[in-house]
Amino acid sequence: MADTRTEGANVNVSPSRISKEVRKIKRAKPDVQIVNVVASGSLEHGIDLRAVNKIFPETEYDPKKFPGLVFRLKKPKTSSLLFSSGKIICTGGRSEKQAASAIRKVIRMLKKQGIVIKGNLTIKIQNIVASLDLGGSISLLDLYMESGRGGGAMYEPDQFPGLIYRMKEPSVVLLLFSTGKAVCTGAKNEEDVYHATEKISQILEKHNVITYS
């Protein structure tokens, strides 16, 4: 005769325990997409923006409205702001390499058309923005309760559906949504983006606030 003493032994398992078991499902590797790299370039001298605008009529320059000249490239698809001080701000790059390449290309184009460029060009990455998919749904309220007080989290669902999480190391800001989607901003290099993604995944698991499908 079969032993029936264990029949129904798990009937009274609490919903919270079931939830925890579900959340322990092994997660897939988060999806990371770099969507914008902002880089700055600095020359050792100023630039004659009126001359640049005359040579490149497709550029946009109206000093009465804005002091910078807009120089757009089709490849790589970026926009650079040139200032008379010799400062250049490039946006739209999809990698550090692409952003730096765009600034160098603008400088080469200026040189080719007779704009005087002397000395060294210094390029620095200012900000990297990435979109993330952490692979599961997130309980933002639970995360806020676990880390909000002094933990770098800000959550006001009546005003905005996302939770703002300020990470100290690496120094980035993460905007998290209940769908598991997120935006990472403030990184100075691509490595920091991937480091922050892995770290926030570990934090969500540690606080048991993410459920993988």
What would you note in describing this structure?
There is one protein chain. This protein is elongated. With 213 residues, the protein is an alpha+beta fold. The protein has helices at residues 15-23, 49-55, 96-112, 140-147, 190-206; strands spanning 31-42, 69-74, 77-82, 87-93, 122-133, 136-138, 153-155, 163-167, 172-176, 181-187, 210-212. The chain has five helices and eleven strands; from the N terminus they run αβαβββαββαββββαβ. A hairpin with a 4-residue loop joins strand 3 and strand 4. The model is unreliable at 1-20 (pLDDT under 50). Helices cover 27% and strands 32% of the residues. The protein has a nine-stranded antiparallel β-sheet with strand order 2-3-4-1-5-10-9-8-7, covered by helices on one side. It folds into two domains: 39-125, TATA-Binding Protein (2-Layer Sandwich), CATH 3.30.310; 134-212, TATA-Binding Protein, CATH 3.30.310.
Features:
9-stranded antiparallel beta sheet; 5 helices; alpha+beta; elongated; about 210 residues; TATA-Binding Protein; disordered N terminus; two-stranded antiparallel ribbon
Short description:
This protein is an alpha+beta fold and 213 residues long.
Distance between the termini: 40 Å
Helical content stands at: 25-40%
Query: How large is the count of helical segments?
Result: 5
The ordered string of helix (H) and strand (E) elements is: HEHEEEHEEHEEEEHE
- CATH structural architecture of the largest domain: 2-Layer Sandwich
Q: Major beta sheet, specifics?
A: 9 strands, antiparallel
